[in-house]
Write a structure and sequence with these properties.
By secondary structure, the chain is mainly alpha-helical. The chain has 13 helices and three strands, in the order βααββααααααααααα. Strand 2 and strand 3 form a beta hairpin. The protein is rod-shaped, with a radius of gyration of 32 Å.
Length: 272
């Protein structure tokens, strides 16, 4: 039985233009013609079209499909295995993007609930990089304190943020003074500043024991976008992030006698 171009296009779910393109490319030429010269497709043509559409669905180009169909036994298996590998990689990539998008939505929905104008007024030079915030969400996803910190941040009023940022600015000024004056990172002054930072986190976001504070400080040293949440780039000095990280580690050792267990939060209870 033979079918016209229109009939094939209708039940194959493609356009007549596509079939003409396949014909012109030499990929699928109708094996018959009507008395009036119109293209007619036979059963073998339909079987070939089914193969073409199958490979197109897998993402093969027309040239690749032509190579496969020229010698299916020699080319199909190798090509399909290569395509399977690429599709698996793409699936992994898309799953990761979906996870990142989900976390980004969560950050937007449960993070700082201020208008852009209020953010500028309260935060000034401190900026929130959404791409970094999303990565941080993924990194800390299983942290016991993460959801508490996000919930408390979402509950802060504009006045809360104003007080919080005022404390942070005062602390930052003391930090820069200590650094500029050459105070050692494991000296009393630098360690006291590290302890103030730890208490600040406990007061406004979530309990911050020594191990958590160390991890936060390590992020400061390794990720410029993390440190920019504490000291804006316009105020940073070379080596400052590493200095803060060393001070935090020294302070943690001071309070734990060099152990890796958590600092007792009893000292910070009055600040909460």
């Amino acid at each position: 039985m033979s079918y016209s171009v229109g009939q094939v296009a209708a039940f194959a779910g493609v356009t007549v233009r596509t079939l003409h393109h396949y014909d012109k490319a030499g990929l699928l030429s109708p094996s018959e013609r009507s008395d009036a010269g119109y293209r007619l497709y036979g059963d073998a043509d339909l079987a070939r079209l089914q193969q073409i559409l199958f490979y197109r669905e897998l993402g093969f180009s027309l040239d690749e499909i032509a190579t496969i169909l020229a010698d299916p036994q020699a080319n199909a298996l190798e090509q399909l295995r290569a395509r399977q590998r690429r599709l698996s990689e793409e699936i992994t990539r898309l799953q990761r993007l979906a996870e990142v998008a989900e976390r980004a939505i969560e950050v937007q929905q449960t993070g700082v609930t201020l208008t852009p104008e209020e953010r500028f007024e309260v935060f000034g030079d401190i900026t929130f990089d959404l791409s970094y915030a999303t990565q941080a969400e993924l990194k800390w996803a299983h942290s016991d304190g993460r959801r508490e910190a996000m919930a408390r941040a979402a509950a802060h009023t504009k006045e809360d943020w104003r007080r919080l940022m005022g404390e942070a600015a005062a602390w930052r000024a003391e930090l820069l003074a200590a650094f500029d004056e050459g105070e050692p990172s494991d000296g009393e002054r630098a360690m006291d500043l590290a302890e103030e930072h730890r208490l600040h986190i406990s007061r406004w976001f979530t309990s911050c024991p020594a191990d958590m504070h160390r991890r936060i400080a390590d992020d400061f040293a390794a990720e410029p976008r993390a440190f920019a949440l504490v000291v804006p780039p316009s105020q940073q000095r070379p080596g400052l992030a590493a200095y803060v990280s060393r001070a935090v580690h020294a302070n943690a050792a001071r309070h734990t006698g060099g152990r890796t267990d958590s600092i007792s939060d009893s000292a910070s209870g009055e600040h909460r």
